[in-house]
Design a protein that fits this description.
The complex is a heterodimer. Chain A is α+β, with helices and mostly antiparallel strands. Chain A folds into 2 domains: 72 residues, Ubiquitin-like (UB roll); 94 residues, DNA polymerase, domain 1 (Orthogonal Bundle), CATH 1.10.150. Chain A is built from 5 helices and 5 strands, in the order ββαβββαααα. In chain A, helix 2 packs antiparallel against helix 5. The C terminus of chain A is likely disordered. Chain B is an alpha+beta fold. Chain B folds into 3 domains: 165 residues, Aldehyde Oxidoreductase, domain 4, CATH 3.30.365.10; 193 residues, Aldehyde Oxidoreductase, domain 3 (Alpha-Beta Complex), CATH 3.90.1170; 230 residues, Aldehyde Oxidoreductase, domain 4 (2-Layer Sandwich). Chain B is 25% helix and 25% strand. Chain B has 18 helices and 33 strands. In chain B, the strands form 8 sheets. Chain B has a 7-stranded mixed beta sheet with strand order 4-6-2-16-13-14-15. In chain B, strands 8, 11, 12, 17, 18 and 19 form a 6-stranded mixed beta sheet that branches. In chain B, strands 20-21-29-30-33 form a 5-stranded mixed beta sheet, with helices on both faces. In chain B, strand 23, helix 13 and strand 24 form a beta-alpha-beta unit. In chain B, helix 10 runs parallel beside helix 18, helix 13 packs parallel to helix 14 and helix 17 crosses helix 18. The N terminus of chain B is likely disordered. Classes of the chains: A alpha+beta, B alpha+beta. Chains A and B meet through helix 1, helix 2, helix 3, helix 4 and helix 5 of A and helix 1, helix 3 and helix 17 of B. The structure holds FE2/S2 (inorganic) cluster (2 copies).
């Protein structure tokens, strides 16, 4: 069974040592996911596998057989921008842009974890009312994604804004139902 | 002057800036232009590409027949390679070539940075030219293979033995062998005015303390990388570079070819901070490509960056300050020793900021160098100032505490009215205002001067402050080309760099205002050695260099347009200084009714485009003025009384950096510098094994940089007072944020706990 990347099927590599990151970059020429350390320390290679954020440098490509991989290139259509991508631009959530695809993919995976009720180490009470995705929660949950340019404030602001807007939409959908 | 005024129409046409800087009373008219694009919060023009992952970095150029490189490193600090067995590596699957000193092409050493106008090399050693080893981690073999996995595996099969020779890898031992005075910018790092030691003994209050800062690594998240290809004798390098023209010239020297045969591009750089110049990987990648006859991608592993690319050196500083009872400084002593390799020429110049910081009667400043057998150290964000302000600004805090004077007030009290050691007038220095507005905004008045007196549960809370400062530079070598099309589109080209500073965006704004065009009618080309100029993205000087070059080219452009306009134009008879860019054309500054669009001028002249190229004038402003950026830094720290853990809860930078070109990207530059300063203060250290000269923490897991959880909301404000002697009225803003920050943190920790930590980083063991 092949692997699906941004909706397209791709061949798995013959060399079992090939990481998901190298498959994406060197075979598929999807250079969005970045190699900042190749050892799980920086988060620049973060992509979504079946909706969960993973470090693609620590994931063997062959482990992803039959699974759906989403990279930063697949978040919006060819021309458009995902709301989080727009918010990163608006809040200047990057300078050099090298950590950015990883921050964005990680943020989407993180928000989904939060919405599923997964607590973080600083979450005090995750009851039915839920807790807000506060800047502090975002900082804790995003700390695996390093940024050396120091765009942290803009990144957190962008994530908080988009999550709040989407939360509003969910609430209004629920209210309408 | 009346010719370049806006004649009662502020915010419309911008006249030509005088094509000279710092002479007479000729401020850039852009300074008075209040309703244009300059200063506004324009989002980065490369933003959409970057958030989509479509900006092409050095390791992302696709080439037919590409091979991948991996390196093997020495494990001794000094000596010879005794045996080097590459047979297993050569036999490994996919291997194209194993290059060592035995088969590498003959090359000249890299021209060492700062030894020639366009020299870019981080060291000047003949790597892979003989069996010698000069540092622990020196590359000894390069493997090329069809895939990165094959190259990485094969490089692990290279087997070497070494014959070690006596080496100096211990700082104490290096100092014992003798030090020499460091040289920087063509002069000795030594300055004596009066007898500071004697003055120190005669004052009523003094401080005399030792401070130390460890080695640091830049740790740009993009590792150094290059995609390299030869076409005959012509070399193409897609690099990650903050010095494309310097790199091209230096590579031409290494390979003995003409400068015009080397083409270096660097459209995007994943962070540089002083590290993305020419190091051995570009040279070795090009050599291997030549040998194999195939294009090469060489991407350093994270460990490889630590082995091959130097960082900031360690410093030991003595700061002694003597003052009268009112707190006026009489003597300033700032001396000490730094480590430096044999193969580079940068003694971390930690006294630079002290030369101009405060008024005093006597000065004694001296940087001594102890040489070690190690990887070449190099420039890292605010070389000198980042660590020098730690010593100076902590000592001043200690003095204020001893005198019972508020730390903000002691700084204002000692404000000099001219440069205290050079005697030159300041071009624009408004740090006192920055202190006042900053203190107000931060709520400094609420600070309790008694250390250790504010506590919330387990947490001790304190406030500290420090001055940040970094010089204004403009290096010679700026040049720009402007191509104006008939449809009113202008393209500026200059061999400058965009590493995330917002260069392309800010200078598109500047160009649009100068030429009277909307932003979407301007493009800014950069990052290509074939473009005009030799502009280093370093020393916070790039914006001034670009700004002056664009003005020079604009003079030529306006002159040509007026000739083309001829007698049939409403502009007939006007000189370039009498017109301004406005509404897609030129207008008479004295009479806005006289104007003609670029389209009309060029249409009548039958021209589709005009191309002009000019060099920027020499940086005369630096001859006449003392020029600096300034910052008043405020920090609130919380220290856990049980664990010693320090958290930064609030930080404010109040800046005096001339006119700000883009509020959004400038704020990010300020914050980025401050955040790197928080790392410098709290966690960063390149650990060096003094037994064998090897870096012990070559990874982002073991070298800690600030993560999201370490970074609070950073508040930044600026007074936006333009400097009348610089292009756009601007000063550099890339390095100022990292200066003063570590001292502000240490001073806040002292205020919180009563513990004075003088050795960075401020880890919890030092606060237990
Ligand atoms: S490249 Fe995967 S975590 Fe750094
Ligand atoms: S934007 Fe440069 S590393 Fe984050």
């Amino acid at each position: 069974m092949p692997i699906t990347v941004n909706g397209n099927e791709a061949e798995l590599p013959h060399d079992p040592r090939v990481s998901l990151l190298d498959l994406l970059r060197e075979d598929l020429h999807l250079f969005g996911a970045k190699k900042g350390c190749n050892q799980g320390a920086c988060g620049a290679c973060t992509v979504l596998v079946d909706g969960q954020r993973v470090l693609s440098c620590l994931t063997l490509a062959v482990q992803c057989e039959g699974r759906h991989v989403m990279t930063v290139e697949g978040l919006a259509g060819d021309n458009g921008l995902h709301p989080l991508q727009k918010a990163f631009i608006e809040h200047d959530g990057f300078q050099c842009g090298f950590c950015t695809p990883g921050q964005i993919c990680s943020a989407l995976g993180m928000a989904a974890e939060f919405d599923r009720g997964v607590p973080s180490v600083i979450t005090e009470d995750f009851d039915d009312d839920g807790v807000a995705l506060t800047p502090e929660e975002i900082r804790e949950r995003m700390s695996g994604n390093l940024c050396r340019c120091g765009a942290h404030n803009g990144i957190v602001a962008a994530i908080a804004e988009v999550h709040a807007i989407q939360g509003d939409r969910t609430d209004s959908r629920e209210a309408a139902a | 002057m009346s010719a370049v005024s806006n004649a009662g129409h502020p915010g419309t046409a911008v006249g030509l800036a005088a094509n000279q800087w710092g002479q007479g009373d000729n401020p850039d008219p852009l300074i008075r232009h209040k309703h244009g694009l300059v200063g506004t919060s324009v989002s980065r023009i490369d933003g959409p590409l970057k958030v989509q992952g479509k900006a092409t970095f050095a390791a992302e150029f696709v080439k037919e027949g590409l091979t991948y490189a991996a390196l093997a490193f020495s494990t001794i600090a000094k000596g010879r390679i005794e045996t080097l067995d590459t047979s297993a590596a050569e036999a490994a699957p996919g291997v194209v070539l194993v290059m060592t000193y035995k088969n590498a092409p003959r090359m000249k050493p890299m021209p060492l940075f700062m030894t020639a106008e366009k020299a870019a090399g981080g060291d000047n050693l003949p790597i892979m030219q003989d069996d010698r080893v000069h540092w622990n981690g020196q590359p000894i073999a390069l493997v090329l293979a069809e895939t990165q996995e094959q190259a990485d595996f094969a490089s692990s099969l290279v087997h070497a033995t070494f014959k070690a020779e006596p080496s100096v890898t211990n700082f104490k031992e290096a100092k014992r062998r003798g030090t020499k005075t460091g040289e920087f910018g063509g002069g000795p790092l030594k300055l004596e005015i009066g007898d500071a030691e004697a003055a120190l003994t005669q004052v009523p209050v003094s401080i005399d303390a030792q401070y130390s800062t460890p080695r640091h690594s830049h740790n740009a998240i993009e590792p150094h990388a290059a995609t390299v290809a030869w076409d005959g004798d012509a070399l193409l390098v897609h690099d990650a570079s903050q010095a494309v023209v310097h790199t091209a010239w230096s590579l031409s020297s290494v390979f003995g070819i003409d400068e015009s045969q080397v083409h270096v591009t660097s459209p995007y750089v994943g962070g540089g901070f002083g590290s993305k110049t020419l190091w051995q990987h570009q040279v070795l990648g090009a050599a291997a490509s030549k040998l194999a006859g195939r294009p090469v991608r060489i991407t350093l592993s994270r460990e490889g960056v630590y082995r091959m690319v130097g960082g900031r050196s360690q410093t030991e500083q003595r700061v002694a300050l003597g003052a009268d009872k009112d707190g006026r400084l009489k003597a300033i002593i700032h001396t000490g020793v730094v480590a430096m390799s044999h193969q580079n020429a940068l003694p971390e110049p930690f006294i630079l900021a002290t030369r101009g910081a405060y008024a005093a009667d006597a000065f004694k400043l001296h940087v001594e160098v102890a040489q070690m057998d190690m990887l070449a150290n190099t420039f890292m964000r605010a070389p000198g100032e980042a660590v020098g302000t730690f010593g100076l600004e902590c000592a001043l805090d200690e003095l204020a505490d001893k005198l019972g004077i508020d730390p903000v007030e002691i700084r204002i009290l000692n404000e000099p009215d001219k440069h205290p050691t050079e005697g030159k007038p300041f071009s624009s220095r408004n740090i006192v205002e920055a202190w006042r507005t900053g203190a107000q905004r931060f709520g400094w008045a609420k600070r309790n001067a008694k250390p250790g007196s504010v506590r919330q549960g387990e947490w001790l809370i304190g406030m500290g402050c420090a001055t940040g400062t970094y010089p204004y530079y403009r290096m010679p070598g700026g040049a720009a080309r402007i191509t104006l099309r008939k449809d009113g589109h202008a393209r500026v080209e200059i061999a400058a760099h965009e590493m995330g500073m917002g260069t392309a965006t800010a200078h598109s704004q500047v160009t649009a205002d100068r030429l009277g065009l909307p932003l979407d009618q301007v493009t800014f080309g950069y990052g290509d050695s074939k473009m005009p100029g030799a502009v280093l993205a370093g020393g916070s000087q790039q914006s001034a260099s670009i700004g002056a070059a664009i003005v020079a080219a604009q003079h030529a452009l306006f002159a040509q347009l007026l000739i083309l306009a001829g007698n049939a134009s409403p502009l007939a008879g006007l000189r370039p200084e009498e017109v301004g860019g406005f509404n897609g054309g030129l207008v008479a500054l004295a009479d806005l009714a006289r104007s003609e669009s670029y389209a009309s001028i060029m249409g009548r002249a039958g021209r589709d485009e005009i191309v002009v190229q000019e060099d920027a004038p020499p940086p005369m402003e630096l001859q006449n003025w003392s020029m600096h950026s300034y910052g008043a830094m405020f920090c609130e720290a919380r220290v856990n009384a049980v664990t010693g853990e320090t958290r930064i809860s609030r930080f404010l930078g109040s800046f005096d950096c001339g006119r700000i070109l883009n509020a959004k990207t400038a704020a990010s530059q300020f914050r980025g510098g401050i955040i790197m300063g928080l790392g410098l203060a709290l966690m960063e250290e390149t650990q060096f094994d003094e037994r064998n000269g090897r870096i012990m923490n070559p990874s982002l897991a073991e070298y800690h940089v600030p993560a999201h959880m370490d970074v609070p909301e950073i508040d930044v404000i600026w007074n936006d007072i333009p400097d009348p002697h610089t292009p756009m009225g601007a000063h550099g803003i890339g390095e100022i944020g990292i200066t003063g920050t570590a001292a502000a943190v240490a001073n806040a920790v002292f205020n919180a706990t009563g513990k004075r930590v003088r050795d960075l980083p401020l880890t919890l063991d030092k606060l237990m």
